[in-house]
Amino acid sequence: MSIVFFDSGIGGLTVLHEAVRLMPHEDYIYYADSRHVPYGLRDKREVQRLVCDAIQAMTERYDVHAVVVACNTATSIAIQALRDRYRMPVIGMEPAVKPAVRLVQASRKRVLVSATPLTLKENKFAELVAGIEAEQFVDPLALPELVRFAEKEQFAGQTVEAYLREVLTPFDLSQYGAFVMGCTHYIYYKNLFSKLLPEEVALIDGNRGTVRHLQRQLEVLLPGRSGKGSGQIRFHSSLPADEADRMTRIFHHLQAEHDGVT
Questions:
Q1: Where substrate is bound, by residue (predicted)?
Q2: Which of 30, 81, 102, 177 is deepest in the core (most CB within 10 A)?
Q3: What is the CATH number of the domain that holds 63?
Q4: What is the span of the domain harbouring residue 174?
């Protein structure tokens, strides 16, 4: 039995990496819809169809006991349709606004939430912010080009840095206590965000919280059935096989970085 991790591209590899660290005795399938990345600028009906079709293909091919939509945009658009279709745990992601707001409450600082344009304009994001009564001190920041940079493996360099400096210019960064990386692709730029933001601004993402939620769901809904895998990971893409090979390479690089190997 396997857990499917889905993303439009390589962003969800950062979530898969966290899952393998915390849950090494599971088997994993990673599917990237690389043919249609980025999702953040697409029509929402198209995104829902792409996500549902990809998950359907993986569940027909493999024995799947849980699905993780490791993409904030895909979650905001398609998570309910997936939960209506499957009885297994279906875990989504949302920008980590709640922990960011808790962190800054004492200091009365603001929270800057970066995400794709589609994530930020969906009602799900507005409801998330309104649900914790944080509208007055949460500011959205769309970073549409960052996904494209990531998919080209441009994780640093003058072009990327100039883009981020430009989009951050309108903000008085001294007013912020937390910066939320609300797209899994953005986590590849954590070091660059650290360089560009004031030292006291905390960088927050939802990866660990998502994996912890997955663990709890498996323990409650599938007691005794999870945690019996070999740690095998299969990579799939909507592009030809060499794209799956590229994802394998990037994932192994993430593992090497965590282990301190260069």
A1: 7-8, 39-40, 72-73, 184-185
A2: 30
A3: 3.40.50.1860
A4: 97-204
Q: Are residues 238 and 178 in the same domain?
A: no
Annotated binding site: 7-8, 39-40, 72-73, 184-185
Angstrom distance (rounded) from CA 73 to CA 180: 15
Number of CB atoms found within 10 A of residue 247's CB: 25
Question: Is residue 92 within 8 Å of residue 77, measured between CB atoms?
Answer: no
The whole-angstrom separation of Cα 130 and Cα 108 is: 17
- Whose tokens are 């569940």? That residue is 59
User: 140 and 218 in one domain?
Assistant: no
| Residue 52 among the catalytic residues | no
Per residue in 192-224, pLDDT (tens digit) is 999 999 999 999 999 999 999 999 999 888 777
> How far is Cα 91 from Cα 83, in angstroms, rounded to an integer?
9
Residue numbers in the known binding site for substrate are: 7-8, 39-40, 72-73, 184-185
20-61 pLDDT per residue, tens = 999 999 999 999 999 999 998 899 999 999 999 999 999 999
- pLDDT score recorded for residue 83: 97
Same domain flag for 193 and 105: yes
- Catalytic-role residue among 183, 201, 233, 250: 183
